[in-house]
Design brief:
Low-confidence stretches: 1-5
Strand order of the largest sheet: 3-2-1-4-5-7-6
Mean pLDDT: 89
Number of strands: 7
Order of helices and strands: HHHEHEHEEHEHHEHHE
Largest sheet: 7 strands, mixed
Shape: globular
Oligomer: single chain
Structural class: alpha/beta
Distance between the termini: 13 Å
Length: 291
Amino acid sequence: MENRAHGADLSAELAYFQEMWDKRASSIKEHTAQTWDTRAADWIDELNEPGGAKSIVERVEATAGYLRNRGLLQENDTVADIGCGPGLFVMEFAKTVKQAVGIDFSERFIEYGRELAAKCGVGNASFEQRDLLTLDVDAAGLADAFDLVFTSITPAITGYGVLQKLMKMSRAMCCNISFVNVGDNLVERVSRDMYGGKVRQRRDGMGFYTMLNLLFLSGYYPETHYCTIETGGRVNPSQELAEDIAFNLRLDSSEEPKILRYLEKLGETERHTVSRFGSILWDTRICDARK
């Protein structure tokens, strides 16, 4: 009786975290290829500004260093970055692997990645436009296609079925990176002054917490690693800044004009962020029933 009860408890816990993970899919409506094509243009412009890529390059290099220290990203490996964005991880991975593939549903990001690879003369980096939500892994010939399937802060990984697709694409390892905590003085100031602190930052670490528990209860042995990146500087009021703050506070776009007016009253101000990222790495070949 005790063992059956324990098994029932584990099943209930697994179902609980599956439900939590599936709830993430409810926000996918705000993430369309068209939306990200628009965001891609702003993101790419920022990356091309002097020093604009500093923080993300720092995170890319730290992540690649961690993976290489774990014996990954070796010369015969084939690696996929799902939700690759502008392809900076793909380009870094390509330095040591046989083939690095970036997959994203934004046509603009894929174009940028291809342009970057051609500009840098990197022949073992390629980019494919695919939507993971609708992707049939078997039909696309991607089952067991990669030694490492990698994801980093992407809305593509929503729903338990999508997580299973990632693991189906891998013949060995998977790695996911997500925010575990973000301290942003300007976002917190807007939250406090305009909304009485009642609106919550989007990057609260719940995705990391949910995935870690879901994988463990499913029988895998996920390991964790953490990285901290700090940025700071003076910022001026702009529509882009208002959009970013509204997004981080999970606010509707109708709030953006109000935030912009608030920022204009502040004028040039200091923005300082401390971003803590969590990596979850697991071997898809090792999965035991939890007892």
